[in-house]
Amino acid sequence: MANDIFTDKKVDHVKGSRQFIADEPHIAFHDKRLWTLRDLRDKEAHGIAEWEQLRELASAIKSHTLTHLADYLEEFERNATANGVTVHWAKDAAEHNRIVHEILSARGVDTLVKSKSMLTEECNMRPYLQDRGMTVVETDLGERIQQLDDEPPSHIVVPAVHKLAKDVAEVFAETIGTDRSNADPHYLAEGMRQDTRPYFIKAGAGMTGCNFAVAETGTVVTCTNEGNADLSGNVPPLYIASIGIEKLIPKMEHLGVFIRMLSRSALGSPITQYTSHFRAPRAGGESHFILVDNGRSERLAMDDFWYSLKCIRCGACMNTCPVYRRSGGLSYGGVYAGPIGAIINPTFDLKKYSALPFASTLNGSCSNVCPVKINIHEQIYKWRQIVVEQGQVSFVKKESMKLAGKVLADPKRYRAWSSGAGKAMASLPRAFLYNPFNAWGKQRELPEPPGQTFHQWYAANRKPEQET
Amino acid sequence: MSSRDEILSRLRGAGRVPEALPDVPLFDENLPPALDQFKTALARMGGQWVDAPADGLDAWLAQRFANAKVICSAVPETAGTLQVHTVTDPRSLENVDVGIVRARFAVAETGSVWLSEAEYGVNALGYLAQHLVVLLDPAVILPNLHHAYRQAAFSQARYCALVTGPSATADIEGVLIRGAQGVRTLTVVGMRGDFLGVGGGVA
Amino acid sequence: MKVALFIPCFIDAFFPEVGIATLELLEKTGCSVVYPFDQTCCGQPMGNSGCEADARGAEALFVKNFADYDYVVSPSGSCVHHVRDHFTAVEQDAATRKVRASTYELVEFLHDVLKITDFPWAEFPHKVGLHNSCGTLRRLGHASPSELNVAPWSKPLDLLRGVKGIEFVTPQRPDECCGFGGTFCVTEEPVSARMGYDKVRDHAGAGAEYIVSADMSCLMHQKGCAERLGMPLRFIHIAQILNGARH
User: Fold this and answer.
1) Which regions in chain C score pLDDT beneath 70?
2) Nearest-CB residue to A275 (from B14, B146, B162)
3) Which residue of A13, A46, A81, B85 is surrounded by the most CB atoms within 10 Å?
4) Does the B32-190 domain belong in CATH 3.40.50.10420?
């Protein structure tokens, strides 16, 4: 699972979700925990009279920025450079990783501490640096759990949410030597703190991702709870930030809108414990900002999908998603899971991720909780059409829909089917109806076939308007 | 063509129709009293509020952190055992038990205090210390984040943070733990005082 | 008022009683109801599966059947959502545009067009859990979704409050999706069934005897789940209650 993200292997969401659901304690906890976050988010959203107005503003600010993105990137670069920061540009993941490695190796750095960054996950940076002899330490607790278990994060805010404390106890016992029989989260978190702290002191460089990049001042903003981003950015002499180019916002004052909503949407807390603003290097320190495209400029050119670049990675769509909650992030087989994964991953590799747009009931709650008002479920619907156009659905599915389309376009053929459907079902033995190949009947009873269709009833009891 | 120019030209060629930038209101009508709201929000985020100690700051520190060996001060109100302006390497703060700083301002809506290299003296003090004590003049509490982000201080500081309670995590089974990688506790002491940044030293 | 009745394919084939209740209810409210006899389906199953092109024939036939009416009424929210929001496989000529604008779901037609909230002939002395399908809730605006910060409303509740003896019970997650999701119910069977199980358990936990909904497809799915779990829950379409069904 972990290593398939960066292969061509087609993701089978159904198989992954079936495995996840088979484990009752894990799915029950996962669903409950994430529903709790959605519930906390609702309480916050309902507690602020201007909440829906803030969503409108955030969406409009992002629309404006994305439709002027080149200008704002240049402004950001100008200001950051004037502040004494070295600004780099990376077209793709490979270039990003190369830049990071060059910065580190030129200064003889062999240990990097880093806070959580979906972009470095997207770039698969850790293995790249480790293959070149570097020690890379994730310092966010959830991310560290996943690193030590050699698994990708399953959620963009709570990376190890699919694990129970006993799983963490196993992982830590194997890797950092905690007591295998002690699964108290306090004990485990303290074990990780003690193990991580020396790395902050030893590391030659620290790295963070970026929640917002402010063009007006050249500032990188990180929103975190654990203190690890500020340790990474303030203890080692060298600081590197990885910035997705879509993270730009025009001015400082716009942060008021986004910061008010980010943590409330993500976790139902009014703000993260730390909202940190890295503008200029510390006296005697050194800062590097890497602006990364990696498919974003292509996405900006997609009429139906450029809106997904507004995403501020709060995870609210995942918490509310009834499918994600019951299938777990790893079943999506990509860096991004849940609804946002269903619309972002296909932009990277349509063939690999062709199943994801179908891993949705199109219920639309994702679009309603989204703080920047991305029309997520509409984009999922559009992706389905594209997946079919590009020939990425199974032959069986395609043929059955073609046949259904033909039958439903022809009243005569439809009548033959509908008057026969019930009768045929009534005469079939139960074993046939509920065989393992019948997806409906596996875990559900089939509807009882009626004696006659509505159409037949109408013909018998009323005067039809039109005769076929 | 450099990557920079390639990215910029691709963005300019994406064919997006320019959209307007909206004005952001201050949303500051009918707000509760700032100090009360600050205290409520701070408590919710795991921080503690203490009124100015009657017997002075040193007596309160001795009682509140009886076992502390290293108390690093960035404020004139107390000398602690270590003055931050004597520190040259942030890593040497590894063994600090208690750090003491004064916030430039605070935000009622979220219970946050604003700190930069000027207040910290050494930024790492706010994160390597086991406990953080923040002096705050109740007169400098802003109502909400919209007001906060209109402060020029954000564009003058090299580094600054809105710090809200102690570090925290809920990454294991959703159990909330105060004291993740950063400070284990954060106490805000309501004490009048003119802003006196340490400034000048290493940040 | 003259109304054309659209009975979707799965209601026609499996739930004729819902079609009958809809027809009788509309007549009770004084409408003159026409049932265009050559109707089949709106095209939703194909569009929902990404096969929009295969929906063209069904959509064209729908337009042909219903272009002459100012009001097309259907007891299925998801089909109306398709006609209104995703009916794009067929050419968007004047007739298509008219049909798309004239198609109403039964609850909104009663509530917004006829403005009826009293059903003196109806009595339903049971504990009822209301299920709003996601399409009616978020696309047709039947009710306020719990995640939005808006003043609350509910059209189906406004109607059901006009029924004697009815008692409402509320599950812990009132607008959590039940997992039907169109073709999702078979293509993503493990998650779909799990969601259905969770849904019926939530309703049963709240003390519901009946689940009522304006969407028979969700009810078909939930009924299949409840029966497999051996739960005594019963399922009924809102048209049946408003038409006077006692059980």
Assistant:
1) none
2) B162
3) A13
4) yes
